[in-house]
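User: My collaborator and I are trying to settle a disagreement about how two of our proteins should look. Neither of us wants to argue from intuition anymore, so we agreed to look at predicted structures for both before our next call. Could you fold the first one, then the second, and keep them clearly separated?

Assistant: That sounds like a sensible way to settle it. I'll keep them separate. The first protein:
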Amino acid sequence: MLGKQEGSRRAALANRKHGRISINIQGDGDLNYAPGVLWTAVHHKIPLLTIMANNRAYHQELMYLQQQCAARNRGVDRADIGTTITDPNIDYGQMARAYGMYGEGPIEDPNALGPALRRGLERVKAGVPAMIDVLTQPRG
């Protein structure tokens, strides 16, 4: 099975020859499984704008555990153990820069998002990958 990150990079390579820009909306937990894909994007100059949907959790698992705890009358308040990505919070903009990619964020102010996306798109149009780390609210 092709991973989301690898699929996005392949699509961006295919779109490059047509002059199209690809955008990847990336989950934070997913990227933590294989952050080396950032190096691949930089090494091969893949024009891909990655928007990090940073909710600071493996949220699908967190919601499942909350559901199971509630169904079994267990401590729902402990469902975050091993499912949240906090303390310390990960700065994905800095992670991107460590791999040689353009990176910004984490963006907390919605008014800062538009300008950050424009800067990222400028880099991608120049033929290099970029990541914008955006803090998002977890699903309820």
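The second protein, kept apart from the first:
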Amino acid sequence: MNIQSEFLQYTQWSGIATLAFAALATLAFVLKWGIRFRLVGTTGFMLVVTAGLFALSLAPLTRTVIPGAIRYSLVYDNGGTQTVITLPPTTTQTQLDATLRQAASDLYSYGRLGVGTNNLMLIRARTVIHPEKGVSIPLYLGQVKRSLASRDDSKMAVEIFEDKLALLPKPTA
């Protein structure tokens, strides 16, 4: 069962509940119950919930999952063309490539400001290493440039800085 049909089923149940509250509010007005205005508010709220569930049943809620991508944290986003994500220092080259592609998919939005001459969004991946006690060095491991004009960017350019990846601590077995 896909998520759109589930939202449609929730919409049906919410619609039935809305009609029940509307009937109860009408009955409350006819019998002049003290709770009648609260029932009108509840009916209005249920109308909003039903409309929201119906809207969710129409729009596709899909998220692209790139195999091999690892969890990242967004540390900088100017809302336009530049973002920075952070990764653990144990990241491998294949994980970095997949995670950059995942971040490019996740961070794309039609509402981003395409300020600039090339309308490209730059996502940089970094980590922090500690070569000795009390010293922290941020390392930029790679970057991806993608179009701000289309969601499916076939010309997305992933660049991995192999010299920086070589500075990462080697995993101990």
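Some points you might bring to the call about the second protein. The mean pLDDT is 89. Strands lie at 73-77, 82-86, 120-129, 137-147, 157-160.
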